[in-house]
Structure formats: structure tokens, C-alpha cells
Amino acid sequence: xxxxxxxxxxxxxxxxxxxxxxxxxxxxxxxxxxxxxxxxxxxxxxxxxxxxxxxxxxxxxxxxxxxxxxxxxxxxxxxxxxxxxxxxxxxxxxxxxxxxxxxxxxxxxxx
Length: 111
Description:
The structure is a single chain. The chain is an alpha/beta fold and 111 residues long. It has a single domain, classed as STAS domain (Transcription Regulator spoIIAA). Helix content is 38%, strand content 32%. It has a 5-stranded mixed sheet with strand order 1-2-3-4-5.
């Protein structure tokens, strides 16, 4: 799993992920979200366009990131999930808490 972070105005940090979001890489996502929030960007977008697979550990890392961002007065949003990732979100009803946006740019453009 590879991460790149793009910082935007208004305290927004966009994490671009590439690879598999699973038990092996979930800890790295938690660390990346924590670092982004601690770096003054409590509004986080996790861009899943490059994620080809996500399991329950990846889902847990997203929920943990949401909690971290909200505790800092921000929020975490997800963007561009593929069909497999969207299915995991739907089957677990996490899509109610973490709705997916079409792109990272739109995630915070929506009120």
C-alpha cells in the first residue's frame, strides 16, 4: 500500500491510496490519518480510486480515522471506491456513516 498526501486550504488533507487495504496495511492508514490530523488537517478525504481490495481490517481503519478526525473537530470522507470496496461498505451498512463521493475534490465541495 502506498500513500501520498495532498494538503488543501481549509484544513483538508487528501490521502491517495494505492494497493490493497487489508490487515497488513490497515495500520499504515491509521498512522497516515493520525499524522494528517495532527499536522493541522482535521478534514480528511481518503481517495480510494487506487484501492483494488478492502477487507474488514481496512474498514476498521477507516472507522478509526473517522473517529480521530471528529475528535479533532473535523471529519473523514471517502471518495472513488471501486465495486468491491462499495460492496463491503454496503454489506456492513458503513455507507450510512461514510457515504462515498465521486471524487476527492467533490468530497468537501459538498456542504
